[in-house]
Amino acid sequence: SLSFEPMMLSASAGPEGVRGELELHLADSTGARALDITGRFDSPIGIATFADLTTSTLEPMAVHLEVGADDLGLLVASTTRNLEVEGGFDLVLDAAADADGRLEGMLTAGSELLTLTNTARDRRRTVSVEPLSLRIEVGSDGLAGELAAGVTAPGEGSVLQATGRLSMPRLNSLDFDSETQPIDGRLDVEVTDLSIVETLLIELSEASGTFELHTQVAGTLAETTVDGEASLRDGRVLVPTLGLDLNGIQLTAIGRPDGRVEIDGEIRSGPGQMTIRGRSERYPSTETPTLIQVRGERFQLMDIPEIQVEANPALDVLFDGYTLQLNG
User: Fold this and answer.
1) Is 166 helix (H, G, I), strand (E, B) or coil?
2) Over the chain, what is the mean pLDDT?
3) Is 194 left (phi over 0), alpha (psi -120 to 50) or beta?
4) CB–CB of 318/324 below 8 Å?
5) Out of 36-40, 152-156, 209-213, 298-302, which region has the weakest mean confidence (pLDDT)?
6) Partners of 128 in the beta sheet?
7) Which H or E element spans position 132?
8) What is the per-residue pLDDT across 116-154, written as a single tens digit (0 to 9) for each?
């Protein structure tokens, strides 16, 4: 079991300013630290009355936060028996705003190496996460962020690679207009072996297939556009508790710059199959509602000795921006 040893939170406000401190340590029964959180907040803005506290912007101000987990295994062990984790995680945030609300700061988070091992139904699956890093910096040139993650499996090499970037060149102040604030970013994810999902989802086994996501975001914060595609190919997974073999899984989702999204997929189970097709505009309306159609014949929902269930779904899901309808 885990307990807080020690925990401290203090805050003060007065003519000399507003200050706060946080210190939290989560440890196991032997005293080994599982999680450390420390933080502080400081603003020289004087507070003389409660009304000052509720109306003041507290600028200038400075914030510092550190989160460290030297052994994530201690945290995971308290919530699940099947998953073992080796490695730690760190997050550091330093941010400040001057009297005019101009921002400057940095957030870094990541882990040098994480090893995840899951044991279910006498099968042991291990993957390593390296690297895992997130960096966000804000200053006079705006906000810029980068993400990198990789997953390897013994004997297979790299099974997942993810990279991302985000830029908002005018976001350098607490006072900004989302209508004119430009945004530019990209996210790429490639999974060459979907069996890695078994590391986290013990209900699944024999997972296979590939997944890719390539998308670009642009426009403004108020009118963000997404242009890209996500696809799952040749997917298969067993769900032993339900006796299911889901196979022939193909799914594609395409985002258009005008805000339209299109979905097309199919999946087989038992003697039958099911298809899903749909579309959605940026702003669904009565004339152009979001529409998702699910069709199938003899699709196996359960196949265990006590119960066998097949379905012939014919469902239409519509959303006009106000009302959700399910027909079928």
Assistant:
1) strand
2) 90
3) alpha
4) yes
5) 152-156
6) 115, 152
7) strand 123-139
8) 888 877 778 889 998 899 999 999 999 999 999 999 998
The H or E element containing residue 1 is none
Three-state DSSP string of 236-286: EEEEHHHCEEEEEEEEEEEECCCCCEEEEEEEEECCEEEEEEEEECCCCCC
CA distance 258 to 222: 14
- Can you tell me the distance from the alpha carbon of 64 to that of 255, in angstroms, rounded to the nearest whole number? 38
Scanning the structure block, which residue is given the tokens 């006590």?
Answer: 306
What is residue 199's three-state secondary structure?
A: helix
The Cα 133–Cα 167 span in angstroms is: 17
Q: Based on C-alpha coordinates, what's the Rg of the chain?
A: 25
Residue with tokens 């987990």: 69
State the DSSP string of 59-118.
-SEEEEEEEEES-HHHHHHTT-SSEEEE--EEEEEEEEE-TT-BEEEEEEEEES-EEEEE
pLDDT exceeds 80 at position 245: yes
